[in-house]
Design brief:
- By secondary structure, this protein is of the alpha+beta class.
- The protein has a domain of 32 residues.
- The protein contains two helices and three strands.
- It has a three-stranded antiparallel β-sheet with strand order 1-2-3.
- β2 and β3 form a beta hairpin.
- The longest helix is centred in the middle third of the chain and has 8 residues.
- The chain is elongated.
- The N and C termini lie far apart (73 Å).
């Protein structure tokens, strides 16, 4: 078989009992009918998802990763008139 991307001859490889075709040039992988189903069936079940930390209602939306020592930015002083008419 030829690679549909770069017309290179595909190489067959056996991965966990499933024959896959891959291109050594572009590293594209092609599966014949039913091979994807075999890969999915043999996949190791993943661990249950890890639950993240729960935030209480009294946390005020802060996550604790903000720095308290940083001073807030001051407004740039444009000019006397700009500051005078700044509502």
């Amino acid at each position: 078989m030829k690679c549909p991307v770069d017309n290179e001859t595909l190489v067959m490889a056996d991965r966990s009992g499933v024959e896959i075709d891959y291109c050594p040039k572009c590293r594209g992988v092609w599966l014949d009918r039913g091979e994807l189903d075999k890969i999915i069936e043999r996949a190791v079940p993943s661990e249950p998802p890890v639950k993240g930390p729960r935030y209480d209602a009294d946390d005020n939306g802060e996550r604790g990763d903000s720095r308290k020592d940083v001073k807030p930015y001051r407004k740039k002083r444009e000019s006397f008139l700009g500051e005078l008419f700044d509502f």
